[in-house]
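re the bet — no i am not wrong, look at it urself. input seq straight from the record:
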Amino acid sequence: DWDNVEEHAVQLLAAATTIPVGGTGPNDKVWISTPSWREHAKKMADAAADAMAAGQNKKFDALVAANGKIVDACEGCHKEFKPQLPSEGIAHAHAH
């Protein structure tokens, strides 16, 4: 399970690194020029790095703390930029 935690944290960290670049969305050019967009991405990257370290060190309490930061970063950004959650109507089902 710790390997799974670390793998997902790496994916979040990679996503947080690319979010400030923008993509093909109709609002991306405006959003990436907004300071709060970059701040949300930094918070997500920091939280993902914390989760990755928690997974590597097998520290459950640190993982719980990182999870709270991830939720705060994601919800904060979505509340400001994409208030309809989940994003774009996509439901993220996890196969476990």
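see?? The chain has a mean pLDDT of 89. told u. also DSSP finds four helices and no strands in the chain. so pay up
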